Amino acid sequence: MKQTSEDEKNLRLLSIFHYVLGGLAGLFSLLPFIHLAIGLVMIYAPGKMSSHGNMPPAFAGWIFVAIASCLILFGWTLALCIILTGRYLARRKKYQFCLVIGGVECLFIPLGTILGVFSLIVLTKSSVKELFQQNRPEATHLPHNIQQG
């Protein structure tokens, strides 16, 4: 019983840290807005980008906009996945999702790596797997007498 309460404490802490890291990831995902703004100025007001009459080509602005938009979308998606992982850890649901996001977090040095490694260590314990299994909904089975048509 002592092991279960320690596992629950660890899952609660991991959940809180996932919320914090998800918020930080969402915040850092706002940095490419600077490049997005520069790209939009290059497209819609190229005269403001030059002082000598040499205006940047419009396609350069589109490159800035496209790359910045992709980075923002990726960052917000990652932040959402990390926050969802925190929620699922707190509710002991979606074990595979939590495990995958824990592995993905390891790529983001240093905070993501620390949280990802600890998440993987905790999630691979058999007692933690059992906690997730207890909250798993039972599969609904169709009656055997229903004929397939």
List the secondary-structure elements in sequence, H or E.
HHHHHH
* Multimeric status of the protein: single chain
Which percent range fits the helix content? over 70%
The global form is: rod-shaped
Strand content: under 5%
CA radius of gyration:
23 Å
Uncertain stretches: none
Biggest beta-sheet profile? none
Word description of this protein:
- With 149 residues, this protein is mainly α.
- The chain has one domain.
- The chain is built from six helices and no strands.
- The longest helix is centred in the middle third of the chain and has 34 residues, at 58-91.
- The radius of gyration is 23 Å and the shape is rod-shaped.
- 20% of the residues are buried.
Task: Tell me briefly what this model is.
By secondary structure, the protein is mostly helical. The protein has helices at residues 2-28, 33-44, 58-91, 95-105, 111-123, 126-134.
Annotation keywords:
single chain; about 150 residues; rod-shaped; 6 helices; mainly alpha
Write the topology of this structure.
Blueprint: H1 2-28, H2 33-44, H3 58-91, H4 95-105, H5 111-123, H6 126-134
Helix pairs in contact: 1-3, 1-5, 2-3, 3-4, 4-5
